[in-house]
Amino acid sequence: MTNDLDIFVGNTTLIDEEVYQLWLDGYSVSEAVSQRLRAGALEQPGAGPGAGPGAVLHSDTLDHYRTCHMLERLLHAPPKLAHQLLFQIPPERQAGLIQRYYAFDEPFVRELLGKKLSKGTKKDLDDVSAKTGITLKSCRRQFDNFKRVFKAVEELRGPLVDNIQQHFLLPDRLARDYAAIVFFANSRFETGKKKLQYLSFRDFAACAQHLIQHWTLGAVDSHVDDMDVDLDKEFLQELKELKVLVADKDLLDQHKSLVCTALRGKISVYNEMETNFKNLSRGLVNIACKLTHAKDLRDFFVDLVEKFIEPCKADRWPPSDMRLFLTQYTGSAHALDAFRHQALWDRYMNTVTACLLQMYHD
After folding, report:
1. Cα Dmax for the chain
2. What is the pTM of this model?
């Protein structure tokens, strides 16, 4: 009687990059074997797992999967990976394993962006998996990664990106993406409405970076708690002072005159801009004045689209004209003698301008 026994002996832990990705993508061992066969892992596939070369490939895949499962607990806390002795993995390979474990599919995160990272949301991952074509196992791994990062950094002081890099050893771009995910999960901005579907995760991530840098507590005080997660409520309250810019008819007329004089002959939609100036200005200022209310804050991106982007699209503004208008619109307010809120205005408009330019697609 003979027994088949698979034995692995070695020093450096070997992890096949292809198999690791198949594991991350949520494929079972048999599915991974099929994928490898189709990719030409064996010139003669054999009869599959039962015998011959196919059995070797099945055994090899199963061995790599066991290693991945054992590594996973360390990947949940990446700094531990560098200090453990069980797996001998060179530092550069460790960094690659961590980066790929925390990488995510943008269609998946787009579906979750702004939602609470709760058990209820996790229960809906079946639907997200069906909609995006991403395996349920992969969806669950990515969701758990988002939640793990959120829980680890939400109460920490200091810059959000730095905290994520320190605790999860992620490269800068990926850490910034996770900062955006954490920020949206905390602030619960509405991103799912139909009129926002044209916006990608990259669009929202770019906007999040501006909001974090300029509208959070940490933007003005580096010693406060949760500095890059919570918006500065005092700042949001002060934005009501900007109402005078559209409520005072003389100021509104002066502002329009300054902008029109500066842009005459410089933009192709001058007539449309002049006609709609007051409506556009009221839209931008009214958005600012309502940000103290939770619902209006959540609808920030919806309001930007409805009050500004859609009217400009209807008049076929090219992005270059929008950029010139917003620059002049913001700067001209400094020439209004009766307007006393220039610093507040700049803090608001500089971020809104960056978001609008990111969100305005041809």
Report:
1. 100
2. 0.89
